[in-house]
Write a structure and sequence with these properties.
The protein has helices spanning about 1-20, 50-55, 55-60, 70, 90-100, 110-125, 160-170, 190-195, 210-220, 235-245, 250-255, 285-295, 345-360, 395, 400-405, and strands spanning about 80-85, 105-110, 130-135, 145-155, 175-185, 210, 225-235, 260-270, 275-280, 310-315, 315-325, 330-340, 365-370, 385, 410-415. The chain has about 425 residues and is α/β, with parallel strands linked by helices. Strand 4 (about 145-155), helix 7 (about 160-170) and strand 5 form a beta-alpha-beta unit. Helix 1 crosses helix 6 (about 110-125), helix 7 (about 160-170) crosses helix 9 (about 210-220) and helix 10 (about 235-245) packs across helix 11 (about 250-255).
Amino acid sequence: MSTVKEVVKEKYGQAALRVVSGTGNACCGASPSSCCSDSDPITSKLYDELQKSELPETAVLASLGCGNPTALAELRAGEVVLDLGSGGGIDVLLSAKRVSPGGKAYGLDMTDEMLSLARENQKKSGLTNVDFLKGEIESIPLPDNTVDVIISNCVINLSADKDKVLREAFRVLKPGGRFAVSDIVTRGQIPEQIRKNLLLWAGCVAGALDEKDYLSKLAGAGFERASIEPTRVYQREEARSFLAGKGVDLDSIGPEIDGAFYSGFIRASKPFAWTIRPAAPADLNEIQTLLGSSGLPADGLADQFPAAYAVAVAGGQVVGVAGVETHGASGLLRSVAVKPALRSAGLGAALVRERAEWARANGLDSAYLLTTSAAGYFPRFGFAPISREQAPEGIRGCVEFTSACPSSAVLMRLPLTEAAR
């Protein structure tokens, strides 16, 4: 394993020095046509011209990736991103732009020359929400539950201990965090002479995992909802271009490598366990932030806070909220919000049901809500549209009815007792 690591470290150190010295891009050596040309099947045309124009030229020249994870990872403002094997920093700098304002991007690399180049590129970019760390992807120098998204660009293949890399990635992700990496993946049996060639580790080929093994290892590390989306499938002649000169008998194995390698986008998520509890005064700031990021009004929130509200908590953070404010014998369901990364996990539904039960237990006969975009969502809980004239006086007088929600918002009602049906 140490031999593989030294080969990789030496190659990537030399790559950074070529960029700094101005003698070439990251992977072109004595023969510029050997890789990183416009026609190279792995590294070419991964970033559009707009993305490249926003970054220092040396960040673009130092790219050794096989994909563009920042284009597929669905990064959001305020998130914390970690790039495993960040090299010259292109994906870190692109991520830093996408998570602003309020977010941060970390880059992790083991090569001093690449880290020096990346920090220089950061200075040129003017970005301040970036931090480049020295370390190995098998031992990430960050605490547990630190980042929202892990990205990587054709680097995990370079590790001889991928199980450890994936366990570390799982450890530093927050509950509900996302694994979103580009990597070289194989399909079917790969010739042994490719697997044994150390030179190919530095080109992401010999260390590539079979697609089934990749998914199995992700599950073994604790991830869920793992998938692989092929982005570039390499046919025989394309494979020739990155196997040439590596001591491989191309003619004898040609049929075996046709379509056997592909660049893929690998997605997975870290499960999270939430608890729903009554809101506390100390939750107010987090709730207001969550509502703001969800485009929901906080007008009048403090009037019945915290008594009318419940929060979902995961990893020590408020990740969801819902309230049923009391107006006479009726309740108004409002402020139903969930952190974006968790919106497909059923948390919003759990909060709505919990607040409906709370309203029943507190003797309310009906719950109402106003919505501009979710009229198709709430009928699953028993809500049905009604006209505004049918709302009781207490509901018509609340701040959401009078000013916070537009007049186009749909009014819906949920009977909570048999008498109210």
